[in-house]
Design goal:
Length: 612
């Protein structure tokens, strides 16, 4: 705790005690967003409360003017079951005498939570008025206040500036504030603030060189602070017109229901697809992004080499990747993705309707940062995106090489979407562009095509009752992108690092021929769920952790596959049980990759001998 208190003191010395507000995650969120084993949430909260009260005592001694306690869990549909815990916690914390701002964000709260929330003994309640950018339904926050009122003795933290969108204020915030005052919320009891932390948007749009049609329409973190000040002072900056953009030159054609389904059922088309040995071996897609590859990319960016020279050098990297895989004896190969910086950025750079920033970094996880592209217009594909590299790779081997694409929902969820049309419509535009790419790949001889959609679950609304609507269009987008594949073309998808057991029906509905998943760190939990579900298509359960430098032994890989077989999954279909890493290998070194894959091939040989 001392480290935290030292940071609070540093903040007070920097900006003054009257402006330094400590932020802490709330006990309700900390407990209910974690995984509990052998202990109830009530017991866990009771164990945490003494630490929270000690912290508040210390903050009071430091003359802290307010502490912000974040409880985003309250926006989930299950939060209503925690109302009693919520009451108990904040009755106890309020006794310490430090003004509390109880802050929720990322969505609205349910009506039962709202009614409990406004009656808690806290001085300030912060609510999200913006919700998810591009969601089909707007948040209900304003409606809750209109229906149930807001207590006159409390301060309302009005999250009216969208903290997850890069688009400038278009009048929504000012209109919402005006509506609040018309509902009887006093102006001096409204604090204007972002809808959520600003860590989700880049730092400063002034660092970018924008095309003329986007100048004045984007707002990063610095600009959102300017908007806040203008709104709070009553002199809101001149708002930009609502974002309305003309269709792209190659706008997608109309979609009809026949475009969402493969032309033949799985069991029939599986017989036409490339025959596999028992326990076929492959990888997920990427190989090490070496310093040499990064230097090539930098040289192209600086104009030190031509695009033709760059492509020739990338082709050498592809040849190396194919040679390694062929030499090790893998069954289905990949070209290695040497030309790709990022699985979303690469495609966004080749699609119309996307803007790419130079300095728009945001945190992904831990210390890893990414530059999400910005979708500003209708999405279309002016030219093939991956066909050249596929043809180079396939021309180097007689074994099948996978075409490698990122799925429409992942591109959408890992980009900044438009706000003038729904996320569903944007996903379908992306799907149509990818559909054309799938068609081009199969026309050029691709018989195994992988379309990764790892962010499928990430896009789920916080409230479970809204899941069905999202999953319906998300799965439709994947199928729209892939259903053009001929029966003899095997469609693979990859999902990783999420709990998918509660959306298995949606995953099955994607109709992929092969599902590859992370399984190296989840204790076969997903495998058991798939077995219980009755999953019967091909499965590649990741047999080793690509985020670890440890090289798995062949014996360890065999053990993992035998555990999978023991669940009864795909009984008798050993040719549908794939051996692959749990994710791409771009972050590893070749010195780790080669022995790991060699042991994977050795494990496959051992398993084939055992099962006959």
């Amino acid at each position: 705790m001392q480290s935290f208190l030292d940071k609070v003191l540093r903040g007070q010395q920097t900006v003054g005690k009257e402006r330094a507000v400590p932020l802490v995650i709330g006990p309700i969120t900390l407990v209910h967003m974690g995984k509990l084993s052998g202990v109830t949430s009530k017991d866990m909260i009771n164990k945490l409360l003494p630490a929270y009260t000690r912290m508040l005592k210390c903050l009071k001694d430091m003359n802290v003017v307010e502490v912000q306690i974040d409880e985003p869990f309250l926006c989930k549909s299950t939060a209503g079951s925690c109302n009693q815990e919520l009451q108990t916690v904040y009755e106890m914390l309020s006794k310490e005498g430090v003004p509390i701002n109880l802050c929720t964000y990322y969505d609205d709260v349910c009506k039962d939570v709202y009614q409990n929330l406004v009656n808690l003994p806290v001085e300030k309640i912060s609510l999200d008025f913006c919700g998810v950018p591009g969601a089909l339904e707007p948040p209900c926050t304003l409606g809750l206040i209109e229906k149930y009122g807001f207590p006159s003795g409390k301060t309302l933290g009005a999250g009216v500036v969208d903290g997850r969108s890069v688009w400038a204020e278009d009048g929504f915030a000012a209109q919402t504030l005006a509506k609040l005052t018309s509902l009887g919320v006093s102006k001096d009891k409204i604090v204007v603030q972002p809808s959520c932390p600003l860590l989700h948007v880049p730092y400063d749009v002034e660092m970018e060189t924008l095309p003329s049609h986007l100048q004045g329409k984007l707002a990063f973190a610095v600009q959102k602070l300017v908007e806040l000040v203008a709104l709070a002072s009553g002199r809101a900056a001149q708002t930009t017109p609502p974002q309305k953009l003309a269709p792209a030159k190659n706008a997608s054609p109309a979609v009809d229901s026949s475009m969402f389904s493969r032309s033949m059922p799985f069991e029939e088309r599986r017989k036409l697809q490339p025959p596999n040995p028992k326990f076929p071996t492959t990888t997920i897609g990427s190989f090490p992004q070496t310093q040499e590859i990064r230097r090539l990319r930098f040289a192209l960016k600086k104009g030190r080499i031509t695009e033709e020279e760059y492509n020739n050098l990338i082709d050498q990297q592809i040849a190396h990747a194919i040679g390694v895989q062929d030499g090790l004896g893998l069954d289905v190969l990949v070209h290695g993705e040497a030309e790709r910086t990022d699985m979303v950025e690469f495609f966004g750079q080749q699609l119309e309707g996307f803007l790419h920033t130079q300095h728009g970094w945001v945190q992904s996880y831990g210390s890893r940062c990414v530059r999400p592209p910005i979708i500003y217009g209708d999405v279309s594909r002016p030219a093939p995106m991956t066909v050249r590299e596929f043809k180079v790779a396939q021309g180097l081997t007689s074994k099948p090489v996978k075409g490698m694409l990122t799925g429409p929902v992942t591109i959408l969820n890992w980009s900044f979407p438009r706000k003038d049309i729904s996320r569903k419509e944007q996903a379908f535009q992306l799907a149509m562009s990818l559909r054309a790419e799938v068609d081009d790949l199969q026309a050029n001889g691709c018989v195994c095509l992988q379309m990764d959609d790892p962010a499928l679950r990430e896009g789920l609304p916080l409230k479970q009752e809204r899941w069905a609507q999202y999953l319906e269009w998300a799965v439709q987008a994947f199928r729209l992108a892939t259903a053009v594949a001929k029966p003899e073309v095997q469609i693979v998808t990859h999902l990783c690092y999420s709990d998918f057991n509660d959306i298995l029906e949606a995953i099955d509905g994607m109709q992929a021929d092969v599902l590859t998943i992370e399984n190296s760190r989840s204790g076969d939990e997903m495998i058991k769920c798939l077995a219980d579900f009755g999953y019967n298509r091909d499965l590649g359960a990741g047999v080793y952790d690509v985020h670890s430098p440890v090289v798995p032994s062949a014996k360890e890989i065999v053990s993992r596959i035998e555990m999978m077989i023991a669940t009864g999954l795909l009984k008798g279909h050993h040719d549908r049980i794939w051996i692959n890493p749990d994710c791409g290998l771009k972050t590893r070194q070749w010195e780790e990759v080669i022995p790991s894959l060699r042991n994977s091939v050795m494990a496959a040989t051992m398993l084939r001998e055992r099962v006959g």
